[in-house]
Amino acid sequence: MEAKIRAFRADDERTLYDICLRTGASGEDATGMYRDPDLLGAIYVGPYLRLAPTLAFVGVDDEGVAGYVLGAADTRPFEKACEHEWWPMLRSSYPRSLFPPESPDGKLVRMIHEPPAADVDVVERYPAHLHIDLLPRLQGRGCGRRLLETLFDALRAAGGKGVHLGVGLANLRAIGFYERMGFTVVRRHTGSLVMARTL
Ligand SMILES: CC(C)(COP(=O)(O)OP(=O)(O)OC[C@H]1O[C@@H](n2cnc3c(N)ncnc32)[C@H](O)[C@@H]1OP(=O)(O)O)[C@@H](O)C(=O)NCCC(=O)NCCS
Asked: In this structure, which residue's CA is closest to atom 42 in ligand 1?
């Protein structure tokens, strides 16, 4: 059966956190890498579902939800909204002292307390950003393309002109996919790239 794409529903949230963990090691399963299995989702999924739920779409096969794309239409206001409505709650649940600072969990907790801001000129030209993750059973079947195109349509309908994303240098498969989907590298950071395209 071809996977279906549909809008996110509130009862998908747990599954999306799980997919985030199961694709969180440069596209491979990160289960067991973190002492807290919810930390990755709390950073890369939760704020989008809370603050931009109409830009969240899922891929569903006969076993259930197995992939998602999440977007923010305007990154700078989204970062500000996170500062008011998302990070404060997480900062009290995850104080800096909870994990050793150089441990995998500790590095994620630091992101909660010091969330990185997108580059000024990237946001200027490509204001939206996105995250996409599919479980292995949905990969390589055209679902990633369909999820991205669904998000692009929603962003265009909201007047969006460009979109960017971050990808780890080790995730060669995703980099190849994004290039195929029209993204080019616009910034190089230590260990990661920022890729972007117009809409
Ligand atoms: C990366 C990912 C989103 C791609 O989604 P997908 O469903 O596997 O990709 P699709 O099958 O929709 O491929 C879409 C197009 O990209 C091409 N493509 C996919 N991977 C490619 C690669 N590594 N190099 C070149 N082209 C690639 C496909 O051939 C296809 O081309 P076409 O539609 O023009 O024929 C998915 O594999 C995934 O979720 N991986 C694990 C999590 C992850 O790494 N997420 C990204 C974190 S930054």
From this structure: 27
CA–CA distance, 82 with 50 (Å, rounded to integer)? 9
* Cα 76 from Cα 79, distance rounded (Å): 5
DSSP assignment letter at 1: -
CATH class of domain segment(s) 4-198:
alpha beta
Please tell me the predicted confidence (pLDDT) of residue 2.
Answer: 86
Q: Is the pLDDT of residue 122 over 90?
A: yes
The answer to whether the CB of 137 is under 6 A from ligand 1 is no
Tokens of 127: 């204001």
Q: Quick check: 171 and 27 in contact, CB under 8 A? A: yes
Atom of ligand 1 nearest to the CA of 178: 16
Residues in the chain, overall count: 199
Match 């460009």 to its residue by tokens. Answer: 162
